[in-house]
Amino acid sequence: MRPISLRRFIALGMICLSTVGCLVIWATEPIRRPKARPKDIHSDDILSYSFFQRPVLTSKCTRQLQFWTNSNVNGYSDDAIRFHCPGVPCEASIIANTNISTTKVSDGVVFFPEAKWSWKKMHSARPRGQKWVFFSRESPSMISPGVIPPMKYYNDSYDYIMTYRQGSDFLVEFGHYDETRPEVRADDDRNWATKKKNIVIGPAADYQFATWQRGNFIKELQEFVPIDTYKACIDSKPCTESEGFEEKVRSYKFSLALDISRCRDFITEQFFVSLASGTVPIVDGPAREDYERVGPPNSFIHVNDFTSVHELADYIKLLDGNDELYNRFFDWKKLGTVVSIKMADLFATENICPIFLRMHEDEMKIGTDVTTNRKVPDWDEWWWNSCSY
Ligand SMILES: *[C@@H]1O[C@H](CO)[C@@H](O)[C@H](O)[C@H]1NC(C)=O
Ligand SMILES: *[C@@H]1O[C@H](CO)[C@@H](O)[C@H](O)[C@H]1NC(C)=O
């Protein structure tokens, strides 16, 4: 280190008394380190910086994300869709295909569970620093086990998690409770039971494969309370159980929001659609705590709270005959609003931007070896063991 003269020492010292930022300058001044890069950086700087941090994959400042899928996701295709994300200096680009040539020049890959891939091929095509995203909106029971890397690649595959599980890097939400926006005024004392059919609505018992005896449960409950069933998805494919549900559910006091799997955090659209539509969902799926974590207080009935279907039916009948009790399930509307999120919204460009922002932030982490920075959840524990069937 070069010696610092006394005058210089005093001058620097005085300046630095007032600002913390100066400490950095002071410490780095004598050894001429590269200047800290400002937050709002010109795109050319990113390129020159990238030369020593990671390979430059594209000739201009664009960050490309590959959706590894052949199905039509919101119109993304082989033709890149380009847009800008707030806080990300480079242009964002999305290409959807399963072409390994695209992988070789992409900054990130989102693996769609319905697509197939060879881990070996993907690893050999992967440029240094390319981010891999584990994506699933389905529970473990509904998707291929092949999405989980083999032991050999266990610690060297996905960087980010994009699922319905709490703690995901990018949470795939089917809805949420917004506590900052009351839906009705505090003095709103409407009767939420008015003009509603006193019967419950539920999915047709035989409608879709479920990992538990959902069909039997519906049939059993039907012996005690009338249940209107609906069949969604008759013409349109692919579709979710929620299609056709939303219009019907409004006119019912209760809905059966029975998830196809009983997996931690796996709470699908019907729960949120019911709440947003002014219907009390009767839920079965993960434990009560999981619903409480994402839903409004006292807003649903959990099947597990009853020892038998008969007991549940009695409770439904009690609420059906007592508007005062029934209305307590809507008190939360004076405190907040439930927003349900459609599948199509999940992949709107603004909802993909958090991935580009995160890639940008990680790229900016000076001196971090991106390849040793992978996310390592215990896949057995975190994914496979999250369901009780
Ligand atoms: C994959 O991408 C490359 C490069 O863009 C292209 O030449 C090739 O035709 C593509 N392959 C398929 C099967 O689309
Ligand atoms: C993955 O990383 C964990 C924690 O660092 C380590 O215990 C485990 O042995 C690694 N597994 C493999 C297959 O390398």
From TrEMBL:
PROSITE patterns with a match to the protein in the record: PROKAR_LIPOPROTEIN
Matching InterPro entries: Glyco_tran_10_C, Glyco_tran_10_N, Glyco_trans_10, GT10-like_C_sf
The Fucosyltransferase C-terminal domain, residue ranges: 196-364
Membrane topology, from the record: Single-pass type II membrane protein
Chief site of localization: membrane
Protein's cellular compartments: Endomembrane system; Golgi apparatus, Golgi stack membrane
Segments forming domain Fucosyltransferase N-terminal: 96-175
Superkingdom: Eukaryota
Annotated TM spans: 9-28
Keywords in alphabetical order: Glycoprotein, Glycosyltransferase, Golgi apparatus, Membrane, Signal-anchor, Transferase, Transmembrane, Transmembrane helix
E.C. numbers: 2.4.1.-
Pfam family for this entry, one: Glyco_tran_10_N
Protein name according to UniProt: Fucosyltransferase
Organism this protein belongs to: Strongylocentrotus purpuratus
